[in-house]
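Worked example 2:
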Amino acid sequence: TLSLSLSLSYHVISGKADICMDVVKETLSKLPMEKASDCLYNRMENNVVPPAELTPEVVFYWRALIEYSQVDYPNVYDRIMPTLTVFSSYLKDYVHMASQIPAEDYDAHYQASYIIVELIKIAKLADFSDEAGRKNLISINKHIITEAEITVQAVERLVELLGIAEPDEQTRIKSIAEVINDIRNPLEGSTQHNIESIESCEKNDPVTLIRCLTLVSGLVKGVKCDVAFDPTLSGLLDDIIMSGVISENEIVRHLAIKALGYSCILSKTLAKKYLVFFLQVVMVDNYTEILETTLKIIFDLLLVFGLETFSDDDMTKKESDDNKANVSDEDLLATKLESTTLERDQHEGEDNISKNAKESKPFEDQIVEKFKEFLDDEILRNVAAEGIAKLMYNNRLVDATLFSRMLLLWYNPTTEGDSLRHCLGMFFSTYGANDNM
């Protein structure tokens, strides 16, 4: 079975991981488990594969064997899954070894990055009832995130791993906030530097912000509390996310917008505050990934909270005294956003011309008009159609003109062979039969 895994090259298993995993597990189901594990166990020392023998193919098979044996074959699992303390040190040592790879050896870097992610996935399969091992893992996890040069994907996996190792939500929030502070302020706490030098050394470069935003996004995805009312998360929102959404670096901006979207999903207060901002992003940003992500966030917020949530006075009457502070903040944010992005075609000019007219319309009418524009946009059409279909299917939106536009798109020859046609076909075939209709 290991020979099968080895025959699946790194490029295959990294690109088609789910399919390859199914193939390996199906093969394992037809073999005696002791024999299937021997080929890996015979390579091991102290229940781990020596780092020099660790390849993408071997670590992939290692994870497959652990996943397959964890429930039904505990004896095999115990042979190939080390304790948390042993595996934490092993992960730390491998990350350090990977950092010594020459910068010009790109293929070795890619393979090491893949192996690190797989090792983190294996760590998630360990026995977390080992209290000493769990604490050791948390400590090493934080050290790797703070100090090591690892990929964004590895950072994401480490945040997920921390979520398992540290189930208490508030402790986890504080831990990641401390890590972010250490990343951005590496001199803080040093007795060799005064306060002025520490403040001047706060890191705001794109690489640092990308790591911090990845941490914030992973953190927010794993909590249940309202971001707006948690002081630590609210501080991260103001300090990290909001500075990122106006960054000139499109990767930073993209991650920040995703993080803001995750935060809004957890908080009706934030959703109501920033929905208009997300609409502005779609109108002025020039990067396809950011446009698609932002539009998906808009549909998610409408799906979760309903259009009626955004129809009250603080969404439609900008003159409200109680909301003046928020309006000025949003206006400033929008101004900064426009200064760091390029306008898309003539949309913004058209918006300015019709702004006064639209402000007097109910929110539902305004959003339907926006949806029509999105359906006419080649870049946004597929995302818009899928989002509208979800809103209609879940009874969040009823509009005959949009329904007609969607029907015309379904029969449009230009959508033949497109994923959009499949999506619309599924929608129309189930919409009328929906019990909630």
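The chain is about 70% helix and 0% strand. Residues 6 and 58 are 7 Å apart (CA to CA).
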